[in-house]
Write a structure and sequence with these properties.
The complex is a heterodimer of chains A (117) and B (114). By secondary structure, chain A is an all-beta fold. Chain A has no helices and eleven strands. Classes of the chains: A mainly beta (117), B mainly beta (114).
């Protein structure tokens, strides 16, 4: 079945560091990918829609300069948390639909646990 | 806007007993509904979906869900729960604009007691 690989699985770094998270579709092409943020025992909050070859679409309240998204190829989207601070600590998850058909489920990466000291 | 609600916080069930996780929806038009499961420190895994057709949908790991239009519900069920079913369960609905965006419920922690 379709697989989405997310890397790294865990990051611990100092405040002020920029952190890049990769999301890859391994056996299908994804013109669209989604980035979510999840707080402990809470639901997924959609941050942005990553679009291959064009600018990402950010949800209201999400700082685009803080959370940089690049979707340079049909199999890779990256999320960079710039100058991360402790309040950015969270679980970040990406997902991708296998086709433009909205009947199909999305496939999720295993998430990245980001801890900013 | 499309939305789903999961009214319970935690569902406790004894191993071997039936498991039900509730979900109600609010949509314009026909709903595209999904259930996902999340294990600790992992992403979400797809369980099942309702798009059209039979109201009873069968999915992975012995789970099923019943679409009820009159009650605007899509409850997830399993006849006999296993300890390994302990996880976080999310109901989701597809965005009306057909752009593949999902709106998730708050999630339900399921605890299956041995």
């Amino acid at each position: 079945g379709a697989v989405v690989s997310q890397h790294p699985s865990r990051v611990i770094c100092k405040s002020g560091t920029s952190v890049k998270i990769e999301c890859r579709s391994l056996d299908f092409q994804a013109t669209t990918m989604f980035w979510y943020r999840q707080f402990p025992k809470q639901s997924l909050m959609l941050m942005a829609t990553s679009n291959e070859g064009s600018k990402a679409t950010y949800e209201q309240g999400v700082e685009k300069d803080k959370f940089l998204i690049n979707h340079a190829s049909l199999t890779l989207s990256t999320l960079t948390v710039t100058s991360a601070h402790p309040e950015d600590s969270s679980f970040y998850i990406c997902s991708a639909p296998t086709s433009g058909n909205s009947n199909q489920p999305q496939h999720f990466g295993d998430g990245t646990r980001l801890s900013i000291l | 806007a499309q939305s789903v609600a999961q009214p319970e916080d935690q569902v406790n069930v004894a191993e071997g007993n039936p498991l039900t996780v509730k979900c109600t929806y609010s949509v314009s038009g026909n709903p595209y509904l999904f259930w996902y499961v999340q294990y600790p420190n992992r992403g979400l895994q797809f369980l099942l979906k309702y798009i059209t057709g039979d109201n009873l949908v069968k999915g992975s790991y012995g789970f099923e869900a019943e679409f009820n239009k009159s009650q605007t519900s899509f409850h997830l069920k399993k006849p006999s729960a296993l300890v390994s079913d302990s996880a976080l369960y999310f109901c989701a609905v597809r965005d009306i604009n057909g752009n593949n965006r999902l709106a998730f419920g708050k999630g339900n922690q399921v605890v299956v007691i041995p």
